[in-house]
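Hey, quick one: can you model this chain's 3D structure?
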Amino acid sequence: MMRILGFDIGINSIGWAFVENDELKDCGVRIFTKAENPKNKESLALPRRNARSSRRRLKRRKARLIAIKRILAKELKLNYKDYVAADGELPKAYEGSLASVYELRYKALTQNLETKDLARVILHIAKHRGYMNKNEKKSNDAKKGKILSALKNNALKLENYQSVGEYFYKEFFQKYKKNTKNFIKIRNTKDNYNNCVLSSDLEKELKLILEKQKEFGYNYSEDFINEILKVAFFQRPLKDFSHLVGACTFFEEEKRACKNSYSAWEFVALTKIINEIKSLEKISGEIVPTQTINEVLNLILDKGSITYKKFRSCINLHESISFKSLKYDKENAENAKLIDFRKLVEFKKALGVHSLSRQELDQISTHITLIKDNVKLKTVLEKYNLSNEQINNLLEIEFNDYINLSFKALGMILPLMREGKRYDEACEIANLKPKTVDEKKDFLPAFCDSIFAHELSNPVVNRAISEYRKVLNALLKKYGKVHKIHLELARDVGLSKKAREKIEKEQKENQAVNAWALKECENIGLKASAKNILKLKLWKEQKEICIYSGNKISIEHLKDEKALEVDHIYPYSRSFDDSFINKVLVFTKENQEKLNKTPFEAFGKNIEKWSKIQTLAQNLPYKKKNKILDENFKDKQQEDFISRNLNDTRYIATLIAKYTKEYLNFLPLSENENANLKSGEKGSKIHVQTISGMLTSVLRHTWGFDKKDRNNHLHHALDAIIVAYSTNSIIKAFSDFRKNQELLKARFYAKELTSDNYKHQVKFFEPFKSFREKILSKIDEIFVSKPPRKRARRALHKDTFHSENKIIDKCSYNSKEGLQIALSCGRVRKIGTKYVENDTIVRVDIFKKQNKFYAIPIYAMDFALGILPNKIVITGKDKNNNPKQWQTIDESYEFCFSLYKNDLILLQKKNMQEPEFAYYNDFSISTSSICVEKHDNKFENLTSNQKLLFSNAKEGSVKVESLGIQNLKVFEKYIITPLGDKIKADFQPRENISLKTSKKYGLR
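Sure thing. Here's the predicted structure for all 1004 residues.
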């Protein structure tokens, strides 16, 4: 008996399957919202962080200006209140007709200014004090590059002027833009940094103005000048980050080592060198001596990098052997860097010649990483044997990030790695063991409470792990312990925004090619099968030419089933490579001649033919071209194929696997197994397996699930089912099946088998009889689960502040009376003298009266205020064309339930035969209607009753945008479990509202 759970984990989905004794017992899908902005893939916290940063900046500027106003009022005998603005009004000192402040800044250098004008000049410069960064670091940021370029240009121009004010006045004041009647703006506009100047230049200007004005008759002291300059150009020292550094994997009392330090660079270099060498030794059989390893290491630490080409030379590797870690997808691929420490080069350049020890170098790197304030950093660096030039160079370097090990751990590991030991071997010899849990559990604890929490800061992955845990624990609760868990992670899990965008682009391109092939099948009268779609894709890629013969492949050839065959460039029986990159479309005759050989083995001796193949291959993608022209192919072993596909080595996959097997109780895989042993301990078994995405793709194709329909959610369950069935025995059987297919084909071409014998022996491979039909039947039973979004932490209102007239026009409130009605309903908000629109409806409370349903929307602003709204939405206009006043509820209204986004509801319109389930998505106050979505988003299986609900549904979008609620026959709320079970919600009294906080470093 074997009980296996399979999971397909994506950044917004969990597909799952439970298999017992090779029978699919259950499967399902959980869809959740990505923890990122869907439009730009940036962090959801970024807008809050930016807004918080702006509030702090404005608050500090306000405090700085208030301090200067008080100083000016005292010294220049001004009325302080004249410089303080009432909400929405100008300060009294700024009323009436005023001269341009740029003109005043220019005149201040040559003539006496009135007291109020001098105050305006001082406040203007203090408010717009230029580009100031006392902690400037070198950067490749494009925006920063534009600013620095503008600063450089303006610095050159300022050499011809006494001050910034004079430069702006003479160059831009009252000057027209080219070929327009519009004046040039002196202040920078959005994304325009042309007039950026250094704060130090503005500080010089302000000091010069104050000194000139003193000469022209003002009798203030030097202390006044110094105080004004000190307040106006004060910059807070930056905090260090030492309190945020995590603990070492092996020593909890030790902090992690900074990533950019000699010890860390050596550790990373040795890890890559040794892993690469161990991988190559399996192929070549030659052992690389320890001396060579250290020579390569010293070269890297001296130069900062090493190419694959140089590495090959250093270890004397034969040219026929390729590097597994390198993608040979372009010319001179081995010129790529195996190791590239750019920060090491920067560090060495800054230091130059020195006599510092390794320990001192590591300490200096740590200081640069932790201390972000240059004044503090300079004080610390002065304690070392460094010149002023070296210190100034080091102040320009920016170091961030840490590795998981402390310097103490590195000190124990590095000597062993220099002897050629792998990291894991070195840890074992040094008796270094990571923290483990004392007792296994029946259910997986929250990741944020686990010993692995510190290893992950990516919120997107954090949410995916949280949902995986919910589904896993629900399955364990329903079915009990299992023997094994198989995991497959989508390619984009844990990747950067840029990497995910690249994958999405590739997927869209592939979808476009598939769509073209499907259309082409229709155009030329071909059956739209997976085989024909593959042939057309290869036909297009090869520019309609057979790679082995050079002859043109016509449409007639494509229609003839016997004319063409898809060939594995490297024979599958020898490479176990079934990828698209290992396939070409060729004439059957050429494939019969090639048999179970590589192109070079089959055609290399025919000089004329091989020359033609070499020429034709140049038109193919680089990796495919290399396979065709490979003259030194070595057979792969089946064991390597199984091992490769049962091990996803990506960091995130490894982390989730470690988290699962560290905490979870499993059923023993054998009678004498102790299931409580830690992973890797003698006698322990593999209970958690990470499966390669390539394997599931190949098996999906083999078992007849070719089309992966991304327009609905059910394909996640199919992937999970395939993952669950990806056992060692299945993979071996599949490998044998593909190998046998190819060998039988070769025997058939060699006329060793008759046609009947060939067809009889080529049996379709599947785990059990009618596998495909049973799987599809089970998938049709799935009800997709979605967790409701109950958190109220989001923007309280939209960014733009409007005047009274602007908000009336924008929102069509018709009049001031209409605006007051909207305010009383909470449709808009008044902040000071300005108006803002609500941002998001967090919750909708549903009430019932006389068999009709009504809604009260509750916005994020309401949660912040903590006041529960009590007015139901009334749509339309009154007789004065103002929005109708919403109606205050009384005891005659019966509270039904509250709806959050993705809450499950049961609905029935008057024209429907029976109620249908749907997920609530949004509420519209203009029509008092809800937007709802079908659980699986699948268009093809809509019933006639569902079509009455989702009347405007289309492929990829099965939802109704505006469903009036008042006259619904059935309107009920349900609870959806992580496994997709539906439970009618019990009645709950109406909840009060307030903003809630959640645990900071993880999701539960």
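One thing worth noting: Confidence is low (pLDDT under 50) at residues 641-646, 758-762, 998-1004.
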